Amino acid sequence: MISFLQFFILVPLAGFIISVLIPGKQETLLSRVTFSAVGINFLAFIAYAIWWLIEGHVPLNFKDIVLFQSTGYEFYIDFYFDKITAVYMFVGAFLTLMVTVYSRYYLHRERGYKRFFNTILFFYMGYNITIFSGNLETLFIGWEILGISSFLLIAFYRDRYLPVKNAFKVFSIYRIGDVGLILAMWMMHHLWHSNITFQQLNTAELVHEHLQSHTFIGVFISLMILVTAAAKSAQLPFSSWLPRAMEGPTPSSAIFYGSLSVHLGVFLLLRTFPFWENQLSVRILIGVLGLLTAFVATGIARVQSSVKSQIAYSSISQIGLIFIEVAAGFEKLALIHFAGNAFLRTYQLLVSPSVVSYLIREQFYNFVPRQHTIEDSIPRKIQYTFYMLSLKEWNLESFIYKLWRPLKKTGRQMNFMTLKNAMVFFVITYAIGVICLFNEDKIPSQIHPYLPTLFSLVGFIMVLKSYTERKNVYLAWALILMNHFWVTLAISFNEHFKYDQTLLYLSGIILAGIVGFLCLSRLKSFEKDVDLNQFHGHAYEHPKIAFMFLLACLGLTGFPITPTFIGEDLIFSHIREDQAALAFFTASSFIIDGISVIRIYARIFLGPHVKTYHESAYKSS
Amino acid sequence: MKSQHSSFDEHEVIHELKHYLPAQAPLKDFIHHNTLHAFQNRKFTEAIRCASEMFGYKVSLSLAEYRNLYKSKRIRENILTDIIIRKKGKEQLGSWMEKLLTKPYDTSASPRIGQLRSYWKVQYHVNLDSLVHPILFRILCSYLDQGISIWNFPVHTSGFLSSLRELERNSFTSFFRTEKIRTLFLNNHIELESLLKTLVGDESLYAQYLYDQQFAHQGWSGMVSAIEDQPQTLLDTKSISLKELIILELLLEIDALNYKFGENWSPLGTKLEQRPVDLFAPVPETELDEVMTIWQDAFEWSYYDEVLAGIKMQKLSGKKAETKSFQAMFCIDDRECSIRRYLEKTDPTCETFGTPGFFGVEFYYKPEQGKFYTKLCPAPVTPKYLIKEEGAMEKRKKDAHLSKHSHSLFRGWLVSQTLGFWSAFRLFVNIFSPSMTPATASSFKHMDRFSKLTIENKNTGDRENDLQIGFTVEEMTNRVEALLKSIGLVKDFAPLVYIVGHGSSSVNNPHYSAYDCGACSGRPGSVNARVACFMANHKDVRAELGKRGIAIPETTQFLGGLHDTTRDEIAFYDEDELSPANKQNHKRHEEVFRKALDYNAKERSRRFESIRTDQSPARIHEKILRRSVSLFEPRPELNHATNALCIVGSRELTKHLFLDRRSFMNSYDYKIDPDGGLLVNIMKPLGPVCGGINLEYFFSRVDNQKLGAGTKLPHNVMGLFGVANGIDGDLRPGLPSQMIEVHDPVRLLIIVEHFPEVVLKTIQSVDAMYEWFINEWVHLVAMNPETHELFYFRDGAFTPYKPQQERVEEVADVVPVLEKHMDNLPVYLIK
After folding, report:
1. Quick check: bond before A237 cis, omega within 30?
2. B591 in Cβ contact with B399 (< 8 Å)
3. Alpha-carbon distance A464 to A470, whole Å?
4. What chain B residue is nearest to A292 in terms of C-alpha separation?
5. Any idea where the domains of chain B sit in the sequence?
């Protein structure tokens, strides 16, 4: 029965693939396929859960397939099932099922009906992979799928400006979380000298023994996990993304941003709890972060005058409380709280349009000119200050914006770069780098240790330029490719990185790079207007190219469709724990290149169409 | 209109600007109106051309859509050639046909609006909108909020800016980024012109800059402007003006620039490479414009011609059936068109009438325990009367999910762990077995069925807030007389006369009030129906009426009702007052109503994909009921979609015509009004009400993104008065795509049964009314009631019109046709 766990991933996967193949006009068939996939999954889960409960509900672990193996390194897919999984699965499958039925009618005749159901299944698959994952590597696959499907759902109305802009914002924040996860995985390798499963984490002695001699590493890993969890669960300082994610059709906002997606940060904390259980400082930190978020978000929720942002901030503040519960070790309470909060917010968002007639009727019969609120008892100046701060969301939006500013500035310093001189520079310096690599033994030992860092820095700068490039899309695309080459070169100077591993890593990149170039040049053959200075919305007239290019983008960002994905993990396993700078630049360049790739996709294919003979919305709407 | 604003007159510019902004009131008072009302003083074609060039609106179907309509024969060839020949002459026919059918045109738009302000991006690489809009919208929404937020905007002194100033003055933080602007703001005297001088510099560009700025978020500006003009439209009234909004926005813009560039920027006017085209410069007509006009005319006349042919085929006997089983008055509304047909089919001895659904009684209504008055008459009318409800028994139910408690920290903690699980159950039930909940907006909640109303006034000193409570006998008589005469019901009364208002029910629908009766200011017409019946049943009123020549038999009773157009249900009021004989009659008629409603539901269902129309009427009706309470149903009904006609005349004109619920119908008997005295009052509201509905659908359909509200699926309710996409978007006035997708954008054709000279005199008697016709925002045909000749009104005169089509198809029964088609159907003659 253990191997049955895969079933919960394979059914949504099958549903997803079938739904992609169905023509867009077949609304009924599309919704039926989605409904069946989720429905079968839900029923099978109920049966499975009953069996599991009868069998004494012991946590199950199932090592599925080893995707890559070399000496001292093994990348394998692993599944795990315990009560946390069970609760998340129940809530997730139930809500997804409800929303599938709901959307079948709600989205009738909507352009993008098919896209919607494809994305829902894709999301659901990512969700299941995440909650069933038995190790961080498997979890990361699910995590990446969630990130990209969230982007696609928020930008569902891709021909309007704000959804695309906000989807991009949210993706940027998710990306920070992703890298937290990569870095946590990196350190985990060094801590255990192998990939370990969550089941192993549950063995208290094992964890304790390892952490005793590596307190700093332990705290570092926990912090990275916390960053990832906070970003996903919209805790401080990332909170402002959640209300901005409410751009898609109401049901998708309801289930993903009202309930499932935001609670995955909590899931990560619950999952890794045994790891940081004995780190008191970390537990206090998580609790304080939760408490702070709960207070700030409640304040913001109280002043919201739009119904969806009010629900979003209320949900955030409850998740803050859940963080406290998790930190305090009240696992069961946290699970109950999660389920209740998820159901409540989903339902509230679904009925949110009713609020007009309902509250106006209430107002008509019960109106009191100035409602007395708790805040009236605070001194006026403090009261007004809090009111204004809450209205401004405590400047969280501009805080996030400021985070990127130095990076953008650095990128813009390199405006002299053109496609030509970048290529020349790359070929020459890279050739030197490769020559050095082949003559590694001749490099003075004082210089050698700095080379990996140097090369990764060059790669990082390339990707910064790509991120800020406004004109030449080929340049932006090429720079990302180059970055990956630099990263491999940098890592190659670390001992064990074999050529076959380099090949594994670069194979996906090169393939994706070429597909991307082909898409762009095909698009260029139709359209004059292809730059990065604004949104172009070419998906409107070239949906197929857009889709192919999206695949290329995914490949280039190390999405689990090419071997690069494993390579990414592999690369980090070759960064030694004392190479903080190397890890920093490599991780940062991964964040930025993901963002840069999605930026290219968004600017070229999404947003209001540059051609004005279509009906198009105001930028502000 | 001035084409050059050489010197800036702040007052005049803001006044004009308000005229151009969307005029939609807050959601609860959603009333249809001509979206391009600001252009109504010009001929339709010129007006839409200018609107398009100035503001970038799409104002017609696309060229490809017209060409497809031609290919599918919905635009008829003979109509098209006829129009070309009339406009261009016979010899040009070939070349224009080629232009219309095949010539490629560049249809890209480059509107004038926004050109000036786009220089910020060009010259400074700054996106001012993204720096200013989010905080601006947030402040506005919080200030105007009607009850979403828990912690309201803390200060409400006199006016928007002074409240904001009070807030700023007593705070450690600021909405402004720079201290300089904050100080400027706290100083009370801010001149709009001096801000413009800082920002724009060149005085001749001020006006255009303000247009650019306000049209970058026309939804919010329009809302502010609407609230400024009619503050009572918000129950929790807020004082705000467009000028205050502009001042704040200018300050925020300067603030953003200062923050970004310090002192290193100069006014926009000094940085222009090239002066933008003046917004109000004349708009020349291009060949493409002409092509589009011809297409639109051909599209409209392909339909009109068929309707007129059908009307011409009617054999008008002028004789009415001997004894009537009952008579029923419905609203003029296009949705009542089919229910009347089915009533007459089910009981051929009944007689139906159409008249604006406030039934000639205008008043404010105060439900028991209501804290406010609700206006129940057409929007432009200001009533002097108040009707109060007494003895209401129904309790309003509450829904904890919509209460705000779940949003506070600790109560939220409790709620989410308790109510949260209840939500899961509720969600399940709502999806698999939807039913009426407190969240449903139901027309029957408007008034308690068993309450009493204070209708009669016996002492004119009986007043509340300057309104007279109830009507005196004299006032009642006047109203009943006017109502009966206007529809031509002055003799041959049946024992029972029903007066049936209408409303609608829906859930999850912020636009609910657009579905109710427009003649009752977007409310259900139940109170009006009851009030009108009370008056007509009143003994003294009857006596007075008798003196004025309207003799209503003592046995005749009037009975009020409400037709819910979404659910196809009718509720009747005051049935206890019926005489025993009429109680018997009523019981029989109820059965007729029930059957007609089932059939009506069936006819409506043909537009809904989720319902199979070939099932039995009763079965379909069940599904229709379920649909009206389904959370996930964005189309509870289709409201006025497909409306295209308005027929003023006797029922004989249309009785045997299948008009597919596309026609407003106002009963009128020319014989009792030979010189058109009554016709004036009938025709006066047709433009603003029916024309307004028609044009709102028209423009929301042709440009759903800019003139409509876009798809409603991502809508987020803002402050209970508007909807926006996401959390920091502009408000979206107009109709959502789900309401207009099946609508064919054709202007309203009004057909009046009277002599052309009388009709001409009538429309010319009021300038505002004449504007609608002479500027062609609606079409007008007069039908000579004696010869049945048709006359079309063009350029100030009636000219004879002979339909191209000789006959329309005849069918014995439309039901089989309905079962097969989802699209608009042609006109049929029912044998």
Report:
1. yes
2. no
3. 12
4. B409
5. 37-112+286-315+685-831, 119-271, 325-397+437-637, 400-432
Q: Encoding tokens for residue B271?
A: 């940085």
Half-sphere exposure of A14 (CA within 13 A, CB side): 13
Q: What is the nearest CA distance from A245 to chain B, expressed in angstroms?
A: 8
Report the residue from B219, B235, B719 with minimal CB separation from A364: B235
Q: How far apart are the first and last CA of chain B?
A: 54
Name the band, by pLDDT with cuts 50, 70 and 90, for residue B3. very low
Instruction: Verify whether the Cβ–Cβ distance A355 to B402 is below 8 Å.
Output: yes
**pLDDT for A200 beyond 50:** yes
Among B416, B424, B610, the residue with its CB nearest the CB of A318 is B416
* CA gap B692, B685 in Å, rounded: 10
Give every strand in the sheet of B496-503, ordered side by side. B351-355, B327-331, B496-503, B557-564, B569-572
| Banded pLDDT at A617 (limits 50, 70, 90) | confident
Those residues whose C-beta lies under 8 Å from the C-beta of residue B64, and which sit 6 or more positions away, are none
Pick from B682, B138, B427, B100: nearest CA to A305: B138
What are the pLDDT digits (tens) for B11-21?
A: 999 999 999 99
User: Which of B134, B413, B426 lies at the smallest CB-CB distance from A347?
Assistant: B426
Nearest CA in chain A to B113: A618
- What lies within 8 Å, CB to CB, of A556 at 6+ separation is A480, A481, A484, A509, A512, A513, A516, A593, A597
Distances (CA, A) of B26 to B31, B149, B219, B514, B731: 9, 17, 11, 11, 11
d(Cα A254, Cα A347) in Å, to the nearest integer?
7
CA angle B495, B500, B501 (to 5 degrees): 160
CB contact under 8 A, B716 and A307: yes
Asked if A303 and B729 come within 8 Å (Cβ–Cβ), the reply is no
DSSP state of B517: B
The residues, ordered by sequence, that sit 6+ positions from B179 with a Cβ below 8 Å of its Cβ are none
CA nearest B549: which of B489, B591, B606? Answer: B489
Q: How far, in whole angstroms, is CA B669 from its chain's centroid?
A: 27
pLDDT bracket for residue B4 (50, 70, 90): very low
3-state secondary structure B654-723: CCCEECCCCEEEEECCHHHCCCCHHHHHHHCCHHHHHHHHHHHHHHHHHCCCCCCCECCCCEEEECCCEE
Test A166 with B726 for CB contact under 8 angstroms. yes
Segment B495-501 shows an average pLDDT of 96
Residue A419 is classified by DSSP as H
The DSSP-derived string for B329-394 is: EEES-GGGHHHHHHHHHH-TT-EEEEE-TTTT--EEEE-TT-SS-EEES-TT----EEEEEE---P
Total residues belonging to chain B: 831
Q: Are B333 and B824 in contact (CB under 8 A)?
A: no
- How much of chain B exceeds pLDDT 70, in percent? 99
Q: Which chain B residues touch A379 with a CB distance below 8 Å?
A: none
- H or E segment to which residue A77 belongs: strand A73-81
The residue in chain A having the minimum alpha-carbon distance to the alpha carbon of residue B733 is A621
Answer yes or no: do A612 and B110 touch at CB < 8 A. Answer: yes
Q: At B160, which amino acid appears?
A: F
Q: Record the pTM.
A: 0.94
Residue B577 DSSP symbol: G
Cβ separation B417–A384 shorter than 8 A:
no
Are the CB atoms for B657 and B314 separated by under 8 Å?
A: yes
Of residues B148, B171, B717, nearest to A353 (C-beta): B717
| A·B CB contacts under 8 A | 331
Q: For B245, left (φ over 0), alpha (ψ -120 to 50), or beta?
A: alpha
> Least CB-CB distance to B148: which of A101, A306, A313?
A306
Ordered by start, the domain boundaries in chain A are 2-358, 413-605
Mean pLDDT (whole number) for B101-121: 91
